[in-house]
Design brief:
- This protein is α+β, with helices and mostly antiparallel strands.
- Helices cover about 35% and strands about 20% of the residues.
- An eight-stranded mixed sheet has the order 1-5-6-11-10-9-7-8, sandwiched between helices. Strands 13-12-14-15-16 form a five-stranded mixed sheet, sandwiched between helices. The chain has a three-stranded antiparallel sheet with strand order 2-4-3.
- Bound molecules: histidyl-adenosine monophosphate (HAM).
- Histidyl-adenosine monophosphate binds next to strand 6, strand 10, strand 11 and helix 11.
């Protein structure tokens, strides 16, 4: 009979062999976030659909094409969260965090959902490590976020990451720039790709996202927002660039970087990796979003942050680095099924001492069990046969040296501990 169901397309199992990479990513995230004063928050996996329509933007790819939206039995319009920033702004106000000392620094680790066409590094369910700093507009918080993210890639041991930086202005300078951009494109509308013509109408900044060959020449000749920033935006951008230089974080200015979410103002950035091809080359990204709280109906509140893609990072880490799953200290084996309860009891005594002990419950032969112990990478095997049972003893075998001793039950813990600490 065929299995009744298969893993849904676009999802992945994160298997035991993958876990060491995920542990390293989680550990580096928690350690760094705490060192910078960020506290953990987790919001629900689904929210009101309206939160993302208003927050991320109704003309974005995420909202128009990629959301898992559903009506529940009570008729509520809900969406599996495609990103974490809008939910965290909501949670910040829900919990009254705007009344706490500002900025409020938060970090999160969890699953997100987008129904993009699955391909290498692109899934329907994926995980992000993200941070958000809310309630303060200082460009140094953008710098802090960029450095924290940069340090995370170093901490997990991934090389080859590059940082792209841009400023996309704010509601003071962007409207005039948008007009300028439309003026540049207007005489050539008929030459543009269909997607770009739609962008021209709904969200002209996204014209820079076009990968269509026919759009490239016009894109290259287009006016750049960095040349049209208002005074405060230009000043903030200078602070970001100078501080990154002073801190020795290398970056490239990319005037075409506009990001795919509508809430950004001023600083935007992306971490990229050469070996992630084409459109999927972003390992993570973020920026400032000073208009988001207001767009969601809350008091205007500045914010900045990033989200880093964990599947993409894990995929690259696996290609460059070998991390093994945790191995047991002790593999405990009864030669005769009658001795299994005794072995089970000895294993418990060892675990109380903090050791990792695996009990083999199978009816296999001793040599087969010892091969399993070696395969699991155990340093020590604990063996009990009829003779040991009668004498109240156990055999402690050093799997590496292939030596063994018979010891009384009360000597099992010290003998195992000694074998583990040797070499
Ligand atoms: P984003 O650029 O949409 O930003 O996503 C951040 C990262 O999540 C991407 O660079 C990528 O590594 C990963 N990612 C996104 N979609 C997928 C997918 N379908 N499969 C696998 N990985 C994916 C945000 O989400 C913003 N909330 C970031 C932010 C936080 N901005 C300010 N604060």
């Amino acid at each position: 009979m065929a299995p009744v169901a298969q893993r849904p397309r676009g999802t992945q199992d994160i298997l035991p062999v993958d876990q060491p990479y995920w542990d390293a990513m989680d550990h580096a995230a928690q350690d760094l976030a705490q060192r910078f004063g960020y506290l953990r928050i987790e919001t629900p996996a689904f929210e009101s659909t309206e939160l993302f329509v208003r927050g991320v933007g109704d003309a974005t790819d995420i909202v128009t094409k990629e959301m898992f939206t559903f009506a529940d039995r009570g008729g509520r319009a809900l969406t599996l969260r495609p990103e974490g920033t809008a939910p965290i702004v909501r949670a910040y106000f829900d919990a009254g965090m705007q009344l706490e000392p500002q900025p409020v620094r938060l970090y999160y680790l969890g699953p997100y959902f987008r129904s993009e066409r699955p391909q290498r590094g692109r899934f329907h369910e994926f995980h992000q490590f993200g941070i958000e700093a809310l309630g303060d507009g200082s460009p140094l918080l953008d710098v802090e976020a960029i450095i924290l993210g940069w340090n995370w890639f170093t901490a997990v041991g991934l090389g080859g990451v590059s940082l792209q930086l841009n400023s996309i202005g704010d509601e003071v300078c962007r409207p005039a720039y948008r007009d300028l951009l439309r003026e540049h494109y207007r005489p050539h509308l008929s030459e543009l790709s269909v997607d770009s013509r739609a962008r021209f109408e709904r969200n002209p900044l996204r014209l820079f996202d076009s990968k269509e060959p026919q759009d490239q020449a016009l894109k290259r000749a287009a006016p750049r927002i960095v040349d049209h920033l208002c005074g405060p935006c230009a000043e903030a951008f200078t602070t970001v660039k100078e501080s990154l230089e002073a801190e020795g974080v290398p970056f490239s200015l990319n005037p075409e970087l506009v990001r795919g979410l509508d809430y950004y103002t001023r600083t935007v950035f992306e971490y990229q990796h050469v070996s992630l091809g084409g459109a999927q080359n972003a390992l993570g990204g973020g920026g400032r979003y000073d208009g988001l709280a207001d767009a969601l109906g809350y008091k205007a509140t500045p914010g900045t942050g990033f989200a880093l893609g964990m599947e993409r990072t894990a995929m690259l880490l696996r290609e460059t680095k070998e991390l093994a799953p945790v191995t047991p200290d002790v593999y405990a084996v009864a030669v005769d099924p009658k001795d299994e309860r005794y072995v089970f009891h000895l294993a418990g005594t060892l675990r109380e001492r903090g050791l990792r002990v695996v009990v083999d419950p199978s009816a296999a032969r001793l040599d087969a069990k010892l091969r399993k112990a070696a395969k699991r990478g155990a340093r020590v095997a604990l063996l009990v046969g009829p003779e040991e049972r009668e004498k109240g003893e156990a055999v402690v075998r050093d799997m590496r040296l292939k030596t063994q001793v018979s010891v009384a039950e009360r000597e099992v813990v010290p003998t195992v501990t000694q074998a583990l600490s040797a070499g």
